[in-house]
Each structure stands twice: as C-alpha cells, then as structure tokens.
Write a structure and sequence with these properties.
This protein has 360 residues and is mainly β. It has a single domain, classed as YVTN repeat-like/Quinoprotein amine dehydrogenase (Methylamine Dehydrogenase, Chain H, 7 Propeller), CATH 2.130.10. The protein is built from 1 helix and 28 strands. The protein is globular, with a radius of gyration of 19 Å. The N and C termini lie close together (5 Å).
Length: 360
Amino acid sequence: MHILIGTTKGLLVYRHSTFLDDPVLVKTHFLGFSVSMAFIDQISGRWWVGVIHKHWGQKLHFSDDQGKNWSITKLPSLKGEKLPNGKLAKVRQIWSMASGGSDQSKNLWLGTDPGALFHSTDNGHTFNLVSSLWKHPSRLKQGQWFGAGSDYPFIHSIVINPEDSNHVFIAISCAGVFETKDGGTTWNPRNNGLIAAYLPNPNVEVGHDPHLLLMSSSNSNILWQQNHCGIFVSKNNAASWENIANKEGIPNYGFTIAIDDDFEGRAWVIPVESDERRIAPNLKLQVYQTDDFGKHWFEVSTGLPKELSFDIVLRQSFYKKSNLMVFGTTSGNVFYTDSTSLTWKSLATHLTKVNCIFIY
C-alpha cells in the first residue's frame, strides 16, 4: 500500500507492505508548497493532488506512474458565477475528490471552497460545475450556507454509494449533508436529528457543520459523521441522525473520524477540547473507539506521547485502509497502527501541519 501525506510544505509518499515492517519513505513531492488534497482513484490508479502554489493559487496535479511524473489539469472554473453576496466566485481551494463506481469508471467528483461541486466524465480531463447544487434554493437564503473557519462554505466530503453510482452524499461546512439519487440532477438536505448549537434555531434544515462524513463499506445504509456539535450516526441512509457522543467527560468536539470496514458499529475519533480551545483535551493526544455505535467508548492511545501535547488532527488527516490506520497532526507528527493491535507507532516527526492523508 501507498500512504500519501499532504502537509503545508509538500507531499510525502510512504510504501507499506506488512506490519512486520515499518512504512518506508519513498519520495517527497511539491516541496515548499501546501498540499490541500491527496487522492488515489481505485479504478484508474491515477494519483491526484491539490497543490496551493504561492503565486499562482490552487492547482490540480495528477500522476499515472505513482508519482514518477506529474501532469497538471485545467482547474475547474467558476467563471461568470457569483456568490450570494454578489462577488464573482473563484475556486480558492480543492478539498475533496471521489471516483464513480465500476459502472462509471471515468467519473470523478471534486469538492471545493467556495462550496462548489464539480463533475468529470472523462477521468479529470475536464470538470463541469454541478449547477443544481450551486443554485440550490437553500444556498441563496441568508444564514444557511456560510463559512466555518473560512470565509465561504466548502465541500470536504463526497461519498458514493457502492451499490448505486448515481447515489451521492456530500458534506458542506457550513450547510450540512446533501443527497442526490439521480447523479446530481437534484439535491436534498439530509440533516434531520443534527444539532447546530451555534444558531438561534439548532434544529434548522440547512446550516449544519459536519466535519467529516463516511459511509460504511459493509452496509451503505450506515453513515457516520464527526460534527461540530457531536458525533452522529445514521442507520437509515441519512434519513435521520443520532448523536452518539460520550456523556462521561470525553469531548464530543473534533474534526475527524474513522470507521471499520467489517464491523458496522466500530469507529474511532480523536477529540479536541472545544471549539473555543482547539487543543488536545488535557493536553494529551488521545484516540477513542466504540464497538457498539457509541453506547460505550474506550481509550486506545497506547504508544502515543504521554507528555504535554498541543496536537490536534484535522478532518482529512486520519485514514483507515484494511487494518492500517494513520493520522497526522497540526504539529507535524504522524502515527500509525494495526487496528487489530492498536499500539501506535511514530511514522514521522517535526513535519509541518498535516492537511490530508490517503492510503491505497
């Protein structure tokens, strides 16, 4: 497997074969530039990387030979489109990418700031704006789409139903979870049961802040999210959500979540103290696991530093593939473990902030 680690100063690529050996650093790319997104298309094998160039802004690079050579594709355009405030829209950052199913092998979806979704049917040669979402009525209503740590909303999660490639979920900070069942022709919010404690009405239909959205690979009816206001799970394809955050002192705030491939009720979170104080709880880097959809949570932090730590983990910086789990922190530390043993080992230290991790 390859581990792609995107930092604010470049992309690191590790190769990992078995847990008898530590991952090995293969190469570094785009040194000195911030990597906003890393993705490997499991159908074509193409590597995709979003890179923020200091003078030229956001760019989208790809490689068909595992990083030996890189090409650049034309950045998706918002030319002529306007934001609700009347300003001209421009792609400021690439946040997420997902590939279509086996029946849509050349399809790609791309999520950006300012809350734009793009779709490609030619393996990324061209991308077209999904106008049905860009012009969704909720977007034009004040207070329903807005920035969360950014001036504008952004699409950080794209989830494709493996049983139906036209069935897609996206998560927007801030707006919430939206669903299409017809390949993007129509979109509907799916936020019933979520809480937006920062709004006058916490039960609004649109205006929520999911931090990361995932779908169970063993049961497409089950979706998880780490949210600004809790940890939520849906067992009915996002028709409704249940807050499963621990009630016994473990902070429910955080940015990221990982779920198990085979056990539907198993997930891991890395808490942050609070929205106001974005630091490790009690200044200790901790990971928590549930095996029963959040009825019980327990700490699985063996091997992590015991000394004081300001590390937190951002939404795209925790990834699980098969039994391998890897996360990177805002302080430039990267840890990995076999999910069957859950003893964490250090992979890298003294990096810059880790923006994203992808394993394939």
